[in-house]
């Protein structure tokens, strides 16, 4: 028996467009079902987005309870965007400087900024103090405008 190839949710043109975007709005669901939104910095690898979040924030609590969310990715103009229905996966919080979670967060930071962090030791300690973790967002569908 052969494995089925993964289903491609996003077309190549959208994946390419997303690869150059880092600003987005993440919309999660509160326990009462109402939306909660947060501006986030995101990196895309294919149709998967990666975001640094803090363990104690509303968006993190919301996603632990219900992993469904919308990631509204901003374009170059008001009339250009992609709204991705995503499923969230929360990694472990960084608990020791330079642990795996911290290394993942450093790669994310350096990809977004396009340069190495000037003080990696300071960065790793901040990730532990802030209880940061990597949020992985897997696209399930997309609505776009102006692309």
What is the gist of this entry?
The chain has four helices and seven strands; from the N terminus they run H-E-E-E-E-H-E-E-H-H-E.
Protein traits:
147 residues, Pnp Oxidase, Chain A, 7-stranded antiparallel β-sheet, 4 helices, 7 strands, globular, disordered N terminus
Task: Give the SSE layout.
Elements: H1 12-19, E1 23-29, E2 35-41, E3 43-45, E4 48-54, H2 58-65, E5 68-74, E6 81-90, H3 100-113, H4 120-129, E7 132-145
Antiparallel strand pairs: 1-2, 1-5, 3-4, 4-7, 5-6, 6-7
Helix pairs in contact: 3-4
Structure description:
With 147 residues, the chain is α+β, with helices and mostly antiparallel strands. The chain has a domain at 12-94 and 134-141: Electron Transport, Fmn-binding Protein, Chain A (Pnp Oxidase, Chain A), CATH 2.30.110. It is 27% helix and 37% strand. The chain contains four helices and seven strands. A seven-stranded antiparallel β-sheet has the order 2-1-5-6-7-4-3. The longest helix is centred in the C-terminal third of the chain and has 14 residues, at 100-113. Residues 1-7 have low confidence and may be disordered.
Number of H/I helices: 4
Q: Can you list the strand order of the major beta sheet?
A: 2-1-5-6-7-4-3
CATH topology of the domain at 12-94 and 134-141: Pnp Oxidase, Chain A
Q: Could you describe the largest sheet, including whether it forms a barrel?
A: 7 strands, antiparallel
Q: Give me the strand/helix succession.
A: HEEEEHEEHHE
